[in-house]
């Protein structure tokens, strides 16, 4: 998707058997996870219980120069984070890792996901005298762990005791003076995996592509509800909360994750290929070529082509040098933003009946502009196919979807009307009941709440949208 649904963040952690350039490894891991968050980033390292960290707005390459990495030093543990601001806005205090100093030691926490009871937890802590420095729900996780640490003999026991109090989506890595602790919510909404490098280093990351980036070999996913403890004594696991059915976010496969990642045993690229094949089966059209909207629409377009027999073509060139600093100070520049970032290949689409595959439509603004790009390049017809069902509901687990009343699927009575509104000759979505075909009998459930309003977790206490949410609309 060229457009603008944002997922909260990516997390990375590394434990080396002896002091090494862990900051460099974290840097490489965060570069591989940059697609999961491009607003801010941070790295914290542990020097025998003393934490050094750097957090700032910007891309990984902007924040972490060679000089900054050298100042972090050679140690044996590090955690890192890349972030979009869903819950918490762009307050600098919300940039992670969140470094906490408490009476039983220091800890640094990185978190991917959103809690559904963050407001309740925050209110409870504030009434007891706690002071929050930011507005993200990660602080509520940290306070809960610290509270339970005062009653526990170890940090992992504190995490185990804290998990029943924190509801919603969380894939976390916690660094203490001597341990790296990875834990995942009981439903497994967001991914988290473990790998090992040739020198014995243990790596934990949101996606397997980050393991590849640092030369680590994927070993397994962290189980939903599992607590993995990594220390000089090796790796141990606490599975007392591993009892509920898994419900990973299906949109990880459709859009969020990098195509070279493997999540819960399923290749992301293959899942998108499968989506395209399903679309060709349920929504065929007479056309000359199939094109995909970069980047997550490309594999789905290839699948549509393979299933339908319609040739696949490269229909767009994406400008990869615009970056997050691209400004739109005038109305003309705002209207031309799509052309700046994406350009249609006239020599490919001119005079052709085109099937264009994208992963989603939110408000429809960007989709309409992309369709116009293809028409302006000379396409005779533009038939749009979407590799997900229509968005109709909020997400409470870390996906920044627009307010329900602004979603285009809620503004029109039919898909045909949506297609007419965005200027497509025809429009079809992936049916909800075919989402299961993306995952190739993976044997676990998935969350489809943003498409159906049926959530695997009680969201009644979450409200509609957190008042600190920031939206970026497609």
Structural notes for this entry:
It is a single chain. The chain is of the alpha+beta class and 474 residues long. It has 2 domains: 6-245, Aminohydrolase, N-terminal nucleophile (Ntn) domain (Glutamine Phosphoribosylpyrophosphate, subunit 1, domain 1); 269-442, Rossmann fold, CATH 3.40.50.2020. The chain is 28% helix and 26% strand. It has a 7-stranded antiparallel β-sheet with strand order 4-3-5-2-11-10-12. The chain has a 6-stranded antiparallel β-sheet with strand order 6-7-8-9-13-14, covered by helices on one side. α14 links the parallel β21 (353-358) and β22. α5 (138-149) packs across α6 (155-162). The longest helix has 15 residues, at 268-282. Mean pLDDT is 90; it is low at 324-328 and 464-474.
Biggest sheet, in brief? Answer: 7 strands, antiparallel
Kindly report how far apart the N and C termini lie: 10 Å
| Number of helical segments with 4 or more residues | 17
CATH topology of the largest domain: Glutamine Phosphoribosylpyrophosphate, subunit 1, domain 1
Count of separate structural domains: 2
Uncertain runs with pLDDT below 50, 5 residues or more? 324-328, 464-474
What does the average pLDDT come to? 90
The count of strands amounts to: 25
Order of strands in the sheet with most strands: 4-3-5-2-11-10-12
Shape category: globular
How would you classify the quaternary structure? Answer: single chain
- Over the alpha carbons, how many angstroms does the gyration radius reach? 22 Å
Helix content: 25-40%
CATH class of the largest domain: Alpha Beta
CATH architectural name of the largest domain = 4-Layer Sandwich
Fourth CATH level, the homologous superfamily of the largest domain: Aminohydrolase, N-terminal nucleophile (Ntn) domain
């Amino acid at each position: 998707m060229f457009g603008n649904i944002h997922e909260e963040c990516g997390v990375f952690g590394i434990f080396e058997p002896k002091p090494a350039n862990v900051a460099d490894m974290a840097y490489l891991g965060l570069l591989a996870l940059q697609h999961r968050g491009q607003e801010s980033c941070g790295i914290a390292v542990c020097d025998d219980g003393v934490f050094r960290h750097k957090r700032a707005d910007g891309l990984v390459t902007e924040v972490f120069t060679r000089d900054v990495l050298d100042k972090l030093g050679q140690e044996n543990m590090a955690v890192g984070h890349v972030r979009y601001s869903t819950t918490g806005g762009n307050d600098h205090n919300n940039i992670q890792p969140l470094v906490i100093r408490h009476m039983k030691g220091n800890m640094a926490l990185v978190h991917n996901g959103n809690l559904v009871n963050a407001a309740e937890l925050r209110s409870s802590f504030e009434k007891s005298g706690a002071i929050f420095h930011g507005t993200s729900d990660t602080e509520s996780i940290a306070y809960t762990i610290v509270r339970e640490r005062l009653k526990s003999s170890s940090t992992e026991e504190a995490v185990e005791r804290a998990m029943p109090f924190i509801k919603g989506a969380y894939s976390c890595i916690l660094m203490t003076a001597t341990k790296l602790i990875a834990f995942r919510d009981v439903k497994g909404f967001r991914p988290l995996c473990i790998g090992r490098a040739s020198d014995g280093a243990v790596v934990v990351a949101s996606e397997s592509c980050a393991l590849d980036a640092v030369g680590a070999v994927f070993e397994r996913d962290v189980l939903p509800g599992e607590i993995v403890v990594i220390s000089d004594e090796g790796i141990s696991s606490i599975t007392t909360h591993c009892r509920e059915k898994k419900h990973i976010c299906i949109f990880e496969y459709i859009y969020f994750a990098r195509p070279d990642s493997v999540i819960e045993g399923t290749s992301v690229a293959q899942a998108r290929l499968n989506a395209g094949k399903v679309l060709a089966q349920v929504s065929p059209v007479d056309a000359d070529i199939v094109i995909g909207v970069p980047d997550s629409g490309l594999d789905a377009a290839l699948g549509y082509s393979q299933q339908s027999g319609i040739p696949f073509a490269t229909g767009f060139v994406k400008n990869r040098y615009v970056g997050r600093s691209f400004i739109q100070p005038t109305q003309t520049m705002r209207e031309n933003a799509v052309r700046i970032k994406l350009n249609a290949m006239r020599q490919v689409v001119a005079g052709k009946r085109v099937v264009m595959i994208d992963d989603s439509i939110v408000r429809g603004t960007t989709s309409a502009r992309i369709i116009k790009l293809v028409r302006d390049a000379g396409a005779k017809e533009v038939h749009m196919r979407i590799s997900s069902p229509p968005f109709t509901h909020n997400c409470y687990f870390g996906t920044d979807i627009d307010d329900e009343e602004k979603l285009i699927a809620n503004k029109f009575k039919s898909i045909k009307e949506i297609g007419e509104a965005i200027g497509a000759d025809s429009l079809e979505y992936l049916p909800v009941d075919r989402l299961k075909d993306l995952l190739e009998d993976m044997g676990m459930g998935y969350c489809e709440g943003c498409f159906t309003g049926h959530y695997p977790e009680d969201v009644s206490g979450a409200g509609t949208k957190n008042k600190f949410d920031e939206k970026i609309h497609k």
